[in-house]
Specification:
This protein is α+β, with helices and mostly antiparallel strands. The protein has a 4-stranded mixed beta sheet with strand order 2-1-3-4, with helices on one face. A hairpin with a 2-residue loop joins strand 3 and strand 4. The mean pLDDT is 90. The longest helix is centred in the middle third of the chain and has 26 residues. The protein has 2 domains: 87 residues, 3-Layer(aba) Sandwich (Glutaredoxin), CATH 3.40.30.10; 106 residues, Up-down Bundle (Glutathione S-transferase Yfyf (Class Pi), Chain A, domain 2).
């Protein structure tokens, strides 16, 4: 059985969500963030990268959510939520599987610049470039969802599982909130977050979930 090492308020809720979508059994090990909002030492000791999520499957200890969801989908889900290479949507699937990392990078650059006391507006080249790239990402997202119900094609896929944290929970750190200014994306959020497995996963391990009593 796969053990999901879950850090509160983190991207590991994606893995719980995928397991619920596939109807697979799993064990959840919960870790609280420290006063500094960072992962505790016992979590960082699980894997050299020390990031969330981390899963254990037998002798395998695996990090990085993009790799984890593809691993689970392929090995235990018979590829149910992956898009096969022969599909014309395969390039779209690959692109949107990576989208989340790009969006997070833009936010973290802004946070780093702010921490140095630099204004986010004005003639700062780094911020001008960062904002331009961020605007392009959101524009691409809105355009994609104008022609497709889901990011990886006409059907729900791992690409959608990868996107939700960035379009919902990341706003807690200052990312853009999806509203009426992005109607296609807002409708997409409503569509995906209405899935029963999503609701269950968020109740178990979402940003507002409470650590289970021992």
């Amino acid at each position: 059985m796969i053990t999901i090492h879950h850090l509160g308020i983190s991207q590991s809720d994606r893995v719980v969500w995928l397991m619920e979508e596939l109807g697979l059994s799993y064990e959840l090990q919960w870790y609280d963030r420290g006063a500094d909002f960072l992962a505790p030492p016992e979590y960082r000791a699980l894997h050299p990268v020390g990031t969330s999520p981390i899963i254990v499957d037998g002798d395998l200890v695996m990090a990085e959510s993009t790799a984890i969801v593809e691993y689970i989908s392929g090995r235990y889900g018979k590829g149910r939520f992956s898009v096969p290479q022969e599909s014309p949507e395969y390039p779209n699937y690959l692109f949107w599987m990576q989208f989340n990392n790009n969006l997070q990078s833009m936010l973290f650059i802004k946070m780093a610049v702010q921490s140095m006391g630099v204004e986010l507006t004005g003639d700062n080249l780094i911020m001008t470039t960062t904002q331009r790239r961020e605007d392009g990402l959101y524009s691409a997202l809105e355009q994609r969802l104008e022609v497709s119900d889901y990011l990886g094609g006409p059907e729900f896929s791992c690409a959608d599982i990868m996107s939700m944290f960035n379009l919902t929970s990341l706003a807690m750190l200052g990312a853009r909130t999806i509203d009426e200014a992005m109607p296609n994306t807002k409708a997409y959020l409503d569509r995906v977050t209405a899935r029963p497995a999503y609701k269950k996963a968020m109740a178990i391990a979402g940003p507002e979930a409470i650590r289970p009593a021992v």
